[in-house]
Specification:
mainly alpha; 83% helix
């Protein structure tokens, strides 16, 4: 059978124990409003007990409940903060992937505008083939690989960055 508290008795118990439990909750959480909420929950649980008179050390019981509620709060807060950090990291990753995809698309589009020979030269070099291997694949002399690659790179740069940028650089060098 649940104990009925008389108002004076409940008020006296609350007024004696609340400051101690509040300081303890504030010590554990470091947050005034959270400590107040936890204290409210602790006392709600106390006054909901069927037989509180059977508890030999009421303050110890209150502190134990306060400890559990505080730790639960802190655990959930940390999970929430970790989730927010993860979401922020994930959105940065998505933006980075989008930037990389856009760059890859722009490179592919610039390559498509080159002759098939320039495309093949640049792709073979990007694959890590040596000048000798490129010469064999392309059927050209070893001595001309460097010159052809340099010209292909120049044409690629014009396509990728735009003719205006290439003209500006040429004028800056000659001017």
């Amino acid at each position: 059978m649940k104990r009925k508290w008389n108002a004076d008795e409940a008020r006296e118990f609350f007024e004696n124990e609340y400051p101690v439990i509040y300081r303890y909750a504030f010590y554990l959480t470091g947050e005034k409003e959270v400590a107040q909420d936890i204290c409210q929950e602790v006392f709600l649980r106390w006054f909901s007990l069927d037989r509180p008179e059977e508890i030999e050390q009421p303050r110890a019981w209150l502190r134990k409940v306060c400890t559990h509620l505080s730790y639960n709060y802190l655990r959930h807060r940390n999970v929430r903060l970790n989730l927010e950090d993860y979401e922020a990291l994930e959105s940065k990753e998505i933006a980075s992937n989008m930037d990389r995809d856009l760059t890859n698309f722009e490179v592919e589009e610039a390559l498509k505008r080159l002759s098939w020979k320039d495309q093949l030269l640049l792709k073979l070099r990007m694959e890590g083939l040596s000048y000798k291997e490129i010469a064999e694949v392309m059927g050209i002399s070893l001595g001309s690989v460097g010159t052809l690659l340099a010209r292909a790179m120049k044409r690629f740069k014009v396509e990728y960055e735009g003719k205006e940028v290439a003209d500006a650089e040429r004028n800056a060098v000659s001017g």
